[in-house]
Task: structure prediction
Amino acid sequence: MKHMKITCRFILTVTVFGLFTAGNIQAQNARIKIDVDRSIGEVNKNIYGNFVEHLGRCVYGGIYDPGNPLSDENGIRLDVLDAVKGLSIPLTRYPGGNFVSNYHWKDGVGPKNERPSRMELAWARLETNQFGTNEFVDYARRMGTEPYFAVNLGTGTIEEAQQWVEYCNVKEGPYYAELRKKHGYTAPHNIKYWSLGNEMDGFWQMGHLNAEDYSKKAREAAKLMRLTDPNIKLVAAGASNFRPDNDPHKWNATILAELRDVVDYIALHMYVGNHQDNYYNFVSSPLVLEERTKVVKGMIDREMEKANRGNRDPIYIAWDEYNIWYRWRQEETMTGERALEERYNLEDALVIGGFLNAFIRNADIVKMANMAQLVNVIAPVFAEKDGMFLQTIYYPLQLFANNMFGTSLNVYVDCDTYDTDEFYLGPAEQATRQKDVPYLDVSAAYNNGEVVIAVINRHKDKAITTDLISQEGLFDGDFEIYEVNGPDIKAENDFGKTSVKTEKKQSVKVKKAEMFTYAFPAHSLTMLKGKIAK
Ligand code: AHR
Result:
């Protein structure tokens, strides 16, 4: 790995107290320039979404655990519900994932004692169907989140997809709307977001299709679903197979060309891991997500020129699965009751911060993102029968989801950089190498006179002293500072032990200043929140 040397220069600074220090020879401060006129796009709250799949202990033993003293009379784990509420999740995808490609929604509605148990083939469990559409909608309402459903385009039919929309969204009259009413739900659920299958480009997907066949099936499913409810938003399954022997761009280009008039989003997925135990490679991996975003944006732009979409918005990107997932990828930890129970550390939290920064920096095109998944399974919340704790990755998501809104800003960052070695994100992924990775990874948004700045200091050992400069208007008033950090990059949380968390630091007082200086600690995510008076 190559690091760029810190240089020296003659500086003139105004400190947070408005004093001038001039003429000292010292190490050059890094610089972050904020210009509230340089907007990228509106931050869509749906980028703080999440995902619940029938996988391992996400549903059963996670959000739903009937008979547990910590659950209510409906079987909902109240401690878990309380924890997930802290993430202010706007939108939650359900019920899969790979699970959905052999899921038949009718199995999961109606009297519980009449629901069939099925072999669950994606993750090798027994699916009892005791939790289904209505239980999830009830849960989502309690969480304060909007449900986002994925239909089965693997072993499922387009007719089945249509009937699910009818069951959920049609007020009364036809058979499935009346069935919902019979099941105790008089008002329709009004599910707005629907994805057309999951990872249909993957050979692992049950009912996997090639791009042409997927496009045909998705188009026809979309037709029936929209005839049932014209107000729904549809998400196409974009490429998820980044193995060296596959061309993911071909899949995306084909489905975008075929579905450009039909869908509202293209879904992309990404999981990364620190396979080589190389911190600097790993914390640069969100930059790969950013590259993939830009490539797909280019494809969308090309198709939008030819599309016939009436007055509908252009197609946007939904990163509807993203996370860190590499420790529990052995055969024995990939399936069964305790599948994918990844435990996270501080470097993982910094990578999540990097993903969120990347979503903000691409706010014009990324309008949805869903951390995969909510509880126990590669999740921010981890529960056992007698308690739960918040994993390290909970904290960056909580910080962003409760603060980072408004217009995303194109921020200028000047700091030292490093080059990574060649590395891969997953065991079967194409290799990558990142050049000139800035130690400071920054995003910012401006909202009604308030600016929110998120800064990750990727440096493992050094604080980075930085001048924050406002180019349009003056920083003014107290800047609130929140920091996600821990004793070292491998620090983990556990039951009764919170090593990594968000701390509210002492605010920085700024009086109508063009600039203030802040030292971002090593291996940290800092969020600064204050006013810019124009
Ligand atoms: O989130 C875990 C799995 O990862 C999902 O089921 C699938 O869509 C992806 O491969």
Summary: The chain has eleven helices and 30 strands.
